[in-house]
Amino acid sequence: MLGNRESYFEALDEVKNICKVKFGDKVCSVYVGGSVARGDFVPGRSDIDLYVVLKSNKVQHKIQMELEKIKSKEKPISVAYTTKKEVIGGQSFLGSGFEYNNFIREGKLIYGQEIKERIPKPTREEEIKTADQCLKFFEANYKDYEEEVIGRYFSATFRTFCIVLSGKGIYVSSKKDVVTVCNKRFKARKLLNEKINVIYDLWLTWGREKLTQQQVCTLIKACDDIMPLIFDLWESKELNLEPL
After folding, report:
1. What is the pLDDT of the chain when averaged over all its residues?
2. Which residues contact 188 (CB under 8 A, 6 or more apart)?
3. Are the beta carbons of 161 and 167 closer than 8 angstroms?
4. Which of 111, 177, 190, 232 is 20 to 30 A from 15, alpha carbon to alpha carbon?
5. Contact of 53 with 60, CB cutoff 8 Å
6. Model confidence over 115-162: pLDDT tens digits?
7. Which CATH architecture has domain 5-118?
8. Which Gene3D superfamilies does the record associate with it (predicted)?
C-alpha cells in the first residue's frame, strides 16, 4: 500500500525503469492520468492510472507481466494498453469522447514520446455516442461494485457523472470539479446536489480516516440514490446551461 506521496512517485519511477531497461523503444509512451497526474491524489486511497502505448501488441503480455509484479507489492496501479497504430488510426480508447478530452488536458508523459497531437479529435456526435454507450454499461452494472472495496463506490459515481457531463460538452475529471459543476449548473436539481455533496464529503473524510460503519451505509445509500438521478440528467438532454 502506498502510504505517502513520495511512494507514488517511487512507483512511477519503477514503471519508467522497467520500460527503459527491459523494453526500450518497444514501448512508445507511458502516461499517468487521473488524480496522480493532476496532483490531487490521496495517498493510500487513490490509484495510479497508467496508459501504455506500445509499438506492437506483441509485447503487451510481457510488459503486463512485469507491471503485475509492481501491483503484487500492494501498489494500486491500473494499466490500460493501446498501440501506436490504434492511436494514429483513431481506434484507441484514448480517442474516445470522455477519455480523449481528459487525456489531452491531464495526461502526463512519464516515458517515451509525446503522442497527444497524433490522436484524431472525436466529433461531438462521436462524443455523445460514446457517452451513451458508457452510461448504458454503468446503468446495467454499477451495482456490481457493492461487493468490492469502498473506493469503487466513489469511482463508479464520479466517473459516471463525468461521462454524462462530457456528453454535454463539459469536460472535468476531478471529484471537486464534478461537485462544482453540479452545484453551479444544475441548481434546480436539489436532490442531485444533495447526494453528490454527501458523497464528496465522505470522500474527503475517507482521505483522512477510515469510514465508520454508519458512514459506509450512508455512502452506499447515497450512491444507490444518485445513480438514477445522474441517468435522468443524461436522458433530459439538458444542454442550455448557465455559464460558470
Report:
1. 86
2. none
3. no
4. 177
5. no
6. 999 988 888 888 888 888 877 776 676 555 443 568 888 988 999 999
7. 2-Layer Sandwich (3.30)
8. Beta Polymerase, domain 2
* Cα(159)–Cα(138) distance, integer angstroms: 9
Q: How many of the other CB atoms lie within 10 Å of CB of 242? A: 8
Q: How does pLDDT run across 53-97, given as a tens digit for each residue? A: 999 989 999 999 998 888 766 667 889 999 999 988 888 888 777
User: Residue 114: which region, alpha, beta or left (left: phi > 0; alpha: psi -120 to 50)?
Assistant: beta
What distance in Å separates the CA atoms of residue 243 and residue 57, rounded to the nearest whole number? 44
Domain boundaries, given as residue ranges, for the chain: 5-118, 124-236
Q: How far is CA 211 from CA 3, 134, 220, in A?
A: 17, 29, 12
What are the strands, taking DSSP E only, across 39-173?
48-54, 77-83, 108-112
The amino acid at 229: L
- Identity of residue 101: N
Q: Is 153 helix (H, G, I), strand (E, B) or coil?
A: helix
Which pLDDT belongs to residue 145?
45
- Listed ranges 41-45, 71-75, 110-114, 141-145; the one with the highest mean pLDDT: 110-114
Of residues 61, 34, 45, 59, the one with CA closest to residue 4: 45
Which grid cell is 17?
Answer: 525503469
